Amino acid sequence: MDFTFSEDQLLFQESVRDFLVNEVTPEKIRELWDTDSGRSDELWGQLSELGLTGLTVPEEHGGLGMNELDFILLAQECGYVALPEPLVHTALVAVPTLNALGGEVAAEWLPKIAAGEARVVVGLEQNQLVEDAHVADLILLQQGSDLHALTQGDVELRHNESVDPSRKLFAVEIKNANVVSIDAAIIDGALQRGALANAAQALGLAQRMIDISVQYTSERNQFGKPIGSFQAVKHHMANVAVQLEYAKAPVHRAAYAAANGLSTLAQNVSHAKLVACDAANLAAKNCIQVHGAMGYTWEVDLHIFMKKAWALANSWGDAGYHKARVADVIFADDALLGAGNTFLN
Amino acid sequence: MDFTFSEDQLLFQESVRDFLVNEVTPEKIRELWDTDSGRSDELWGQLSELGLTGLTVPEEHGGLGMNELDFILLAQECGYVALPEPLVHTALVAVPTLNALGGEVAAEWLPKIAAGEARVVVGLEQNQLVEDAHVADLILLQQGSDLHALTQGDVELRHNESVDPSRKLFAVEIKNANVVSIDAAIIDGALQRGALANAAQALGLAQRMIDISVQYTSERNQFGKPIGSFQAVKHHMANVAVQLEYAKAPVHRAAYAAANGLSTLAQNVSHAKLVACDAANLAAKNCIQVHGAMGYTWEVDLHIFMKKAWALANSWGDAGYHKARVADVIFADDALLGAGNTFLN
Amino acid sequence: MDLAYTDDQKAFREEVRSWLAANVPAEPLQSFDTEEGFQQHRDWEAKLNEGRWGMVTWPEELGGRACDLIQWLIFEEEYYRACAPLRVNQNGIFLLGPTLMEYGTDEQKARILPKMANREEVWAQGWSEPNAGSDMAAIRSKAELKGDVYVINGQKTWSTRAVWADWCFGMFRTDPESERHRGLTFILVPLDSPGITVRPIPQLDGLPGFAEIFFDNVEVSVDNRLGGEGEGWAVAMATAGFERGLMLRSPARFQETARRLVELYRENQTSADQDPAVKEAVIRAYLDAESYCLTTYQTACRINSGGKIGAESSTNKIFWSELDQNMHAAAMSILGARAELLPHAPDAAGVGTWLDGWLFSQSGPIYAGTNEIQRNIIAERMLGMPR
Amino acid sequence: MDLAYTDDQKAFREEVRSWLAANVPAEPLQSFDTEEGFQQHRDWEAKLNEGRWGMVTWPEELGGRACDLIQWLIFEEEYYRACAPLRVNQNGIFLLGPTLMEYGTDEQKARILPKMANREEVWAQGWSEPNAGSDMAAIRSKAELKGDVYVINGQKTWSTRAVWADWCFGMFRTDPESERHRGLTFILVPLDSPGITVRPIPQLDGLPGFAEIFFDNVEVSVDNRLGGEGEGWAVAMATAGFERGLMLRSPARFQETARRLVELYRENQTSADQDPAVKEAVIRAYLDAESYCLTTYQTACRINSGGKIGAESSTNKIFWSELDQNMHAAAMSILGARAELLPHAPDAAGVGTWLDGWLFSQSGPIYAGTNEIQRNIIAERMLGMPR
Description:
The complex is a heterotetramer, with two copies of chain A (about 350 residues) and two copies of chain C (about 375 residues).
Chain A: H1 7-23, H2 26-33, H3 41-49, H4 68-80, H5 87-101, H6 103-114, E1 120-123, E2 130-131, E3 138-143, E4 146-150, E5 155-161, E6 168-174, E7 179-181, H7 184-219, E8 221-222, E9 225-226, H8 231-259, H9 265-291, H10 302-314, H11 319-330
Parallel strand pairs in A: 1-3
Antiparallel strand pairs in A: 2-6, 3-4, 4-7, 5-6, 8-9
Helix pairs in contact in A: 1-4, 4-5, 4-7, 4-8, 5-6, 5-7, 7-8, 7-9, 7-10, 8-9, 9-10, 9-11
Chain C: H1 7-23, H2 35-50, H3 69-81, H4 90-103, H5 106-117, E1 123-126, E2 142-146, E3 149-160, E4 167-173, E5 184-190, E6 196-201, E7 210-221, E8 225-226, H6 232-239, H7 242-248, H8 251-267, H9 269-272, H10 276-304, H11 313-335, H12 354-361, H13 371-382
Parallel strand pairs in C: 1-4
Antiparallel strand pairs in C: 2-3, 3-7, 4-5, 5-8, 6-7
Helix pairs in contact in C: 1-3, 3-8, 4-5, 4-6, 4-7, 8-10, 8-11, 10-11, 11-12, 11-13
């Protein structure tokens, strides 16, 4: 029993955080809002140079052969800066799905991903609007029991604007079908990883909203002192900190379950997504409150992270979907509940 | 449209409050805990002299011929002091039920109630354990579709101890049956009034817990100042005040509906009981918290009112029962929702 | 107590209902935070005024109907049922107007109220300043009396409607030596005065719902002072009083949201019921909106019969703003993956205006005195807890 | 990261499980807040000690098993699964014991620990005073050193187990000139000393779960001072540290409550589902209890591998105490009209021990530093917000 991350994992997290915090600033994000695609090949190139695109790609396909657990702390950092690139989507959702598919499609696309030459995204029925489909070199799209592998030539995209200007969502219509699997387990595996990706980013978003708010309330004065010194403001923030603190371990356990193919993956992921997104939603609610009217403005950066948090909570399965999954498990006759059943013995 | 109480109603409330606050002190309540019955014929006599037992009894039976609306503010005051007598039970539940029954049983018992010679209680399936059955001169008891009118000789009582030492609950076994009605409407009417009685008392209990806590936190010092000056303590209390403020009108509306036999009575009462008992439960939770360890003791009076609030929330229909009633109304195809439908036009 | 409407009240409701049915635009207007939408709403105010429905609580000689609070509540119920447009001039009609009637000179009333009524002049409020938000007594913008003009310098912010409005009202410090609540004067300022710069502030939805107003030696005739010099705080408190608040936050708004929420829930019941918290929230929404309506009627009746309203009015702000936020949060949960879509998105079927409402509901617990300030007031003034 | 138990850990679990299966009393003991129940629990401690299961984290030479935190968590999981009795001497074993090992002299360890282990001496804590609750640094009880004895005068309160315990430990002001955290000394006091009066304080359930202790010129040998004179605060902080907290609030307790809550819900599903808030609460209970367990394991592993635990430990108290309160509130809702009945009531079928648990859960957010104090600590020390 060892629930800690390795030195390497923590060091890599640090270096990635340093890069992202310096490169993917709120200013940079606002700039991208004014571009057509809202994405940056230059940034994607930098992420690739850092080895991030290839991190989860098997070594035989030119990647680093790491797994979901190795990537989870990085996904948190991507959430912390609200990274406007499908990196988590590609590395944590698409790559494991391609691995599961194997064969030609994997052999063709995994090396491109590792080389930073391809963004790959996934669209499922729980997620009919596909994020970043417009910049995707490959779209893995569920239709009924079929999973298609489609390039831009095979599809027609219909843009759907999100409240989060950084999120680019598209309805995808198939012009040329290309079924690569009818294996429900592969589709379910993709959904788990999509939900896991949102959970990890939600942790980062919550932390970012806390940091922004602690700084703002320490500097903003009313009644002759920093508003952060008022107990009501402190307790708003403390309540977020408590929720966040207890959402981390469930996300890390879910990543472990994905990396090790545990039979409890589905329930572990649903647990992780529910508590992580709750923490991020509470952060949004309390942080805008302690910002006062400033939090309601476009110019203050808070809403960049708040709107993403709202969106992540409802994509890759909303709260109802994941609660139902949990309920199916805990209300079953053979449910293993209570002390000593948290880890598979 | 006039949603105010009359001068007379408000004056009577004041005089009753003065009497109750002076006579039914926490010390008095604690004394009664050590007596066999937990009730006091002397106190019942005083209540009768004030005209309270006969208030809702029709004039032809020697009462004042007032209705549920006239009594509702008094029921709040009974809750404020946690009156350990079945006054609200008799005047607000039993009397209207006897009125509805009419005939011999009404003719025999209503005058006795008005004269202060009889306590009458009601037991329904929602309330199988009958409060104060041991001191009741008449018990109106539902069994299936039958409503029985029973005296002590007709029944066997089995005492059930409540967490609230003031509540005396009894399982009632019928030795000699005496069916006086099979009218479901009468039984339902009794349930409405029982729930209404709890709602009104819950308002009083919540106010009492606020008053006790405001006083305590104003006197108790920590860190060199009254704990009531800490914002966290203030906001705990303010949250209770808000809930309570918005629970009053629904209770008064429900009493009006009972007094005027409105078709909306059931949903009005369920609404009133839900919000009033929520306010009292929140008061219990926040008031024990601001009392700190003192609130957890037997010697501080808070628990007298806290435990009663807990009990009232679950008797005469628990939250689930009343929410289901509300849901049946608002989720019906012909539901009249939205602006302008609050009052029958 | 008599909870039935009188025949007059019923007749009044009918009259409102039929006029609205005949006159409310079939197509919803654009947001009044856009230039075109602002003009559309300005025109709607003119139409309301023609029918004498613009300010029903105003005296008849001013184009109103001298309605009492109950009639006002009935009017609002019908207004929200009819999905009539938002009131672009609410700062003027509901906040400044009644205050003018109380504190204004006859000259001021004659000059200002008619144009406010016939929508010629739309009003913005200028309460807050960058360092005077929750702490309004910290106002620093100065007004110096020189002859018969005030020379104003300083900055206001969070000024709703200011981008396209014609006038604004607010408090300015006329006694440079004064502190806190003293030495403030209530002044009305034409927004086209030389020296005024209005900087729009885009809000969460990207539209300029409010603005900053910069004053650089702006000269305003002393005729535009409301109340005496140095008496601004008293005038402002009246302006922010409960009846005014009621005007702005009538229960009908929240009851209609609750009704739409019940509909949304029923349309999506199968998926919605996967999350038991949703059904709970929908039931609560209905109950709380009803409680808000009942409590408002009870308060209005007390005021009608000469009663006074005390610190418990602070509970009002907290209750409606949290109710509004909770109802919209529940709608977002029901909409699930669709919740984030803008209404015009091609695949946004059934999302209606919930997202806009959700964004707007975020401001409720903040503006007009944060809910934290309201809780302090409740604890100290209503419950009497130590400061 | 490796979330599988090692073979040793599995074997350890088996050993604990089989011993408990063979030794846990079939009949639940009476409450240790009754005189007879206290003796029953004292005897149970003796039995645990015979099997060397009394203090598994203690070193072997002191009758322990030198367990690390993971083994401790496994032990607790089996202990709660087996419904084994509460630990009447927890103040001694889990709070004072480890502190003695850290700060005690060899003489003190040899004299005190064995009797603590073999249950001869049960310990009460004496932290709070009437005017030093949340504000513990306000302690006023004095200890004056005269020759080789401290003469103690003053009063302690909320002293759990003190009614029937043999010893208590606490802080006393040895420097009369000192203020706040300085000048306090940690002293161990035999409760049978002349001059001591113990007044039981009945709690919500009527039983004397804690007591006031009055000191009237109580003479205590200087040998009973733990740590140096005036160093009491540091010793006390160690005693209240996270690992100790973990000892008292292991996740197993809440996971078993969550399991019983799920059972209760399923037994009463038809009526329970009338209130959608109940199902929501039951799902939350399971998730939060799991989160608490996972987070505790992660923290324990970090500590095992040399990591330190910071201010985030304050989140622990808030999380478990609110979880415990919420779970019991849900149970009360499910039980409905039965919820108020005492377990022995003739018609209390199926109520189990939920009411006792509900009452006890009220104390969670209060004792060992109210949750308000914990939130201050989180905001100021963990988040770095201004004081």
